[in-house]
Design the sequence.
């Protein structure tokens, strides 16, 4: 009986040693995962969670407040569409790569500006360091119905090379407005 009791204890000890080994490995994995985030990111997450939790404890905004906010946003959007003439019809975003300080997303936009339609495809590279976030547009591809206008083709080519979306949208808005005026004028004389 002595040997059988000793064997039971040995088996129990071995089982406990294996469990300790598994728990130690799990602890090391958790420690490695937590080092992926900086102290600032962890503090920001905690503060965000606290704000969210306090917001839940105080209660949600009333439906009338949310409706007023939605109406305000719709009014702002309507104003911007009338002011620029740019209306987006579709947008898709796909994250291609994500690391602790670098994110690459692929965007596709389509829409129209007055009577001209356009499609954009580009990658947005966001790099984050301790103080700021910088964003760079790469692989810009623009498809426009420019007809036989070589100036528009040259402009689109140079914009694709530079990757400057702000210049593209400013110029598109101005060009499309005058393109619409010219079209209406020529229709008037036909």
Sequence:
């Amino acid at each position: 009986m002595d040997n059988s009791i000793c064997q039971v204890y040995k088996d129990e000890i071995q089982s406990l040693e294996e469990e300790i080994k598994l728990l130690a490995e799990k602890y090391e994995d958790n420690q490695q995962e937590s080092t992926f985030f900086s102290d600032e990111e962890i503090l920001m997450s905690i503060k965000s969670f606290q704000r969210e939790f306090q917001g839940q404890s105080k209660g949600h905004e009333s439906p009338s407040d949310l409706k007023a906010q939605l109406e305000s946003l719709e009014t702002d959007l309507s104003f911007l569409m009338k002011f620029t003439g740019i209306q987006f019809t579709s947008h898709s975003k796909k994250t291609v790569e994500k690391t602790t300080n670098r994110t690459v997303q692929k965007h596709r936009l389509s829409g129209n500006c007055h009577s001209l339609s356009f499609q954009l495809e580009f990658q947005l590279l966001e790099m984050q360091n301790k103080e700021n976030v910088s964003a760079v547009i790469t692989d810009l591809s623009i498809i426009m119905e420019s007809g036989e206008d070589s100036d528009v083709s040259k402009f689109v080519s140079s914009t694709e090379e530079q990757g400057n979306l702000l210049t593209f949208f400013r110029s598109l808005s101005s060009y499309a407005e005058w393109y619409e005026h010219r079209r209406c004028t020529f229709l008037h004389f036909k």
Remarks:
- The chain has a mean pLDDT of 80.
- Helices lie at 2-34, 39-58, 63-84, 150-162, 165-189.
- The longest helix spans residues 2-34.
- Residues 85-189 form one domain.
